[in-house]
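note to self: dont lose this again. the chain is below, predicted strucutre after it. 205 aa total, dont forget to put it in the shared folder this time
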Amino acid sequence: MLSCHALVCVAGGQTLITDLTLDFAPGERVALMGPSGSGKTTLLTTLAGLLPPSGGQVLVRGEPLAGRPALRAELALIFQGYGLLSLLTAAENVEVAVRAAGHSPREAMRRAAQALERLKVARFAGHLVEELSGGQQQRVAVARALALRPRVLLADEPTAEQDAAHRAVVLDELLAVTDSGTTLVIATHDAEVAERCDRIVALRP
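---
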């Protein structure tokens, strides 16, 4: 479903990924692990098509991702910093993303309500982002990605801000997407998260 070949990634003037080749199968759960500075975030951003590689290429279903908006739409990235719009409510943050993907306002509202409920933040749907805690914002960001129903879901430390109960909720919802064939790639420092994946890719600085 997703692959990279001879990938080279540069961020902040520093080469973090060199000559990396990986294949991610449909429905596979893959954990990216490594110390800070090993390039996990940079790799996810490149795989998502948001950071052009300095060498090599990213492929989706065997097709080059670069310059292909239709392929890019099949991927969703959960940012470590959440990437929410502060002037919008939790529900509006999800709805905007779904509408941008070409769905009707009614469908966007339906998907947003469903995703926020699954992530246990439905009661904050009408709250502005700045009124939410870090953990709540993170769950809204996860809900937004799930509402898009991508074929590839990339997640950057998606449980980092959660207490034990909500961590389990987030992880269960993320892992569940693979049941329908979605590929899941999670950058994490959490050994328990990694243990529930099919494979671990270890990055080193």
